Amino acid sequence: METKELIELLNDDLETEFQSIVQYVRHVATLSGAEFTSTVDELKVHLGQELQHATTLAEQVSFLGGVPSTRVPDAATATESRAALEADLDLETRQLERYRERTQQATDLGLADVAEALRPLLTQTQEHVRDLTAALGR
Question: Which end of the chain is least crowded, N or C, by CB within 10 Å?
Fold first, then answer.
């Protein structure tokens, strides 16, 4: 792998963060039911962290000489609360795997600073997966 390919992959991750932000905004506004009150509060925390993730990814792309993407993939359009949370869990699970890969790829390229910048994203995404899993009663 070369730095150029890592930049492309980080831009893909950035786009996924944008998707996640849009999806969380929608789900915060549309989740309903007393059983999801605390979940909505947790999603608001996730939303702020997703914005931080996007900022970190954009900074790393720029640091490596790339131009941060502004493309936003389509967000899930689930209208039922459990289906919305399932969509969030699916997206976070995919992001978690991508951050594991990206951290290792940066390390393999000798880009310790980039790998270090990605570690908090990995840790917070693991927490998001745990939170959503718990909210779904799994």
Answer: C
Q: Which of 41, 21, 17 is nearest to 94 (CA)?
A: 17
Tokens of 102: 């990206």
Residues 6+ apart with CB under 8 A from 133: 89
The model carries a pTM of 0.93
The residues, any chain, with a CB within 8 Å of residue 70's CB and separated by 6 or more, are 18
Burial 8-30 (b: 16+ CB within 10 A, else e): ebbbbbbbbbbbbbbbbebbbee
At 58-104, the pLDDT tens digits run 999 999 999 999 999 999 888 888 899 999 999 999 999 999 999 99
d(CA 52, CA 133): 22
What is the C-alpha radius of gyration for the chain, rounded to an integer number of angstroms? 15
The label of the residue with tokens 């992959």 reads 9
In the chain the first and final C-alpha atoms are separated, in Å, by 37
66 CB neighbour count, 10 Å cutoff: 18
